[in-house]
Amino acid sequence: MFRLIIRPVLLLFSKNKELVNKLYPILGFIPSRVALYEIAFIHKSSSVTLPDGEVVNNERLEFLGDAILDAVIADYLFRRFPENDEGFLTKMRSKMVKRKHLNLLAYHIGFKQLVISQSSVAKDSKHLYGNAFEAMIGAIYLDRGYQCTYKFIERIIDKYVNIEKLKQIDSDYKSRLIEWAQKEKQEIIFESKVGVNSQIKHPHFVCHILLSNAEIGRGTGNSKKEAEQKASKMSLEKLLA
Amino acid sequence: MFRLIIRPVLLLFSKNKELVNKLYPILGFIPSRVALYEIAFIHKSSSVTLPDGEVVNNERLEFLGDAILDAVIADYLFRRFPENDEGFLTKMRSKMVKRKHLNLLAYHIGFKQLVISQSSVAKDSKHLYGNAFEAMIGAIYLDRGYQCTYKFIERIIDKYVNIEKLKQIDSDYKSRLIEWAQKEKQEIIFESKVGVNSQIKHPHFVCHILLSNAEIGRGTGNSKKEAEQKASKMSLEKLLA
Prior knowledge:
Two copies of one chain form a homodimer.
Chain A: H1 2-11, H2 17-27, H3 34-40, E1 48-49, E2 55-56, H4 59-80, H5 86-96, H6 99-109, H7 119-124, H8 128-144, H9 146-160, H10 163-168, H11 173-184, E3 188-196, E4 205-211, E5 214-221, H12 224-239
Antiparallel strand pairs in A: 1-2, 3-4, 4-5
């Protein structure tokens, strides 16, 4: 009760009242160290340079939050699926923390009005909201500790994540292709290629998949994983047609 | 005081007294749920099958402990290096949790007498001790919670890890090669190849590195990373000779 009564009164005098008002419905508690949350929503395209030259954006908090999120989800899955092996747990976690999944989650939670970024950059950066979500996890952890962060993430999962549906999804085409090869006793060769030079800020990846020396799939992308997934998808479509 | 007096008395009647005696000097506390630690030291080569058919080994605990260790080290580095960016933090963590590093750490701590495995398998599995170390982190977390695990890991780091020395080591040949290419405005191509079939339990990776269409490095290994590191090292030796 003490906290519930005193905190809102203090907020009337807070410079960060607007941010706190936006955060409260998301967090379910009134943050103490509001500056941390402020930083969590600063995308590097809108980095702030302090008088002493220090550049501030959400990347350090994202590093921390990413690790805390992974740990909490590992614990969550460990307890929820006591009968499943670590292969299943690893797969489930990777589906839950996938950038695409986190972006959508952060968008639903209402991050669009919170993240500060240069709109032109933001348009290109599809991971903007997912990254800010992780940075916010880092802020909660520093502000309130591990237990509170755990409860926050658990609440978000229960509200927004359909675990049973995620269990069914198998969008990992590479794993499925490898399983196919093992079952059919065929050898599949993955060939990846990436060029690195000073001009290319975002290296371009290419993946070719060969079966008996003939190409059955090919994919390109901004990451090795993306190129491999596309090439594996094409291969599976050909093999299972 | 209550805990200090009562627990050792209880242990006199414990079936796990021997394990607890070995664990106490490592943990610095007397574990409550000893069975968890017992599981943490069972390598999959010595899996135990329970009457209900459940197979027990340390792999699930390793999944959990790996994530908790990553989170604690992220927090530790975040606080210890307030001025460094997330690139530095990521690199430092990857050096600290590298299997080779964890294996050595676990060996020094005295894991050799704790891990139960089939010696022939153990000989092949170089990650035996590092994996058991992570599984033990998972056991501590379940037994004592996050704060206690944090303190345990912090104590291990302070006692066994030379952070300043780790900062100096730059064994990431691939990053160094990419930095070289960017500085010299040259394009480097990484070509990786891996074959997957039912016969090969441990796929064999090959990496070729090209500069102006000529091969400057080549490496093989049991992981893509190992093959890339070897090929990058060879390339750097050629380029910087």
